[in-house]
Every structure is written in structure tokens, then in C-alpha cells.
Amino acid sequence: QVQLVESGGGLVQAGGSLRLSCAASGRTFSNYVMNWYRQAPGKERELVAGITTTVGNTNYAASVKGRFTISRDNAKSMLYLQIDILKLEDTAVYYCNAGMRHWGKGTLVTVSS
Fold first, then answer.
1. 32 vs 25, 51, 55, 95, 108, CA distance in Å?
2. pLDDT tens column, 84-102
3. Which residues, including other chains, have CB under 8 Å from residue 74's CB and lie 6 or more apart?
4. What's 53's DSSP letter?
5. How many CB atoms lie within 10 A of CB 52?
6. 1 touches 103 (CB < 8 A)
7. CA torsion angle for 97, 72, 27, 55 (degrees, to 10)?
8. Can you tell me the distance from the alpha carbon of 16 to that of 12, in angstroms, rounded to the nearest whole number?
9. Residue 20: how many CB atoms within 10 A of its CB?
10. pLDDT digits over 69-83, tens only?
């Protein structure tokens, strides 16, 4: 079992930046492919970024490519999501996911105009 706790959300103006963090505990963090998902009001949860275990290959949803950067620190059991050039449509609850099985409770990002 892996426990995941997200942090770093908040209210940000459009065009601004934010860095989300996810602290993992429990089973070996480095064994898991890690992902960030988000769920906007009235919409389904969607995958925004993923990163492999040790090599750190990344993938992004088309809507965030070039603005979002996912990274991980296996020594610290931490996952990050750097969000730049925030848009109104980025408003959502952002969730950390481990191995497509374990979920955090999410952190809210609200983008204002």
C-alpha cells in the first residue's frame, strides 16, 4: 500500500505558475509509475502527466504539453508537477496516482482571470 498526500494548490491568476507536490509513504516509491490526474467541476477525471520509475520518461496530455512538467525524486519519495502559464481551464482538483492503483485526496487549483 502507498499513501499519497498532495500539496501546493491554491488560487492563482491566469498566466501564473504553481508547483504541486505529492509525498509518498509506504511501499517503495521508485517501483511505481507515477501520474498526475485532474478533475474539473462537472467533468471526468483526466490524466495530465505521467513519469516512469527510474529512467523518468514522461508523457503529457495534449492540452498541457509545454506548460506542465512532471518530475520525481525517488530518494525523497516525492512527485512534482510544475504548472506554468496557467489558464482558466486548468482549474481542477489535482490528484497524485501511483501505479494506476493508489490515489491521494487531491489538491485544488483555482485559476482566476
1. 12, 9, 12, 15, 24
2. 999 999 999 999 999 999 9
3. 29, 30, 53, 54
4. S
5. 13
6. no
7. 100
8. 6
9. 23
10. 999 999 999 999 999
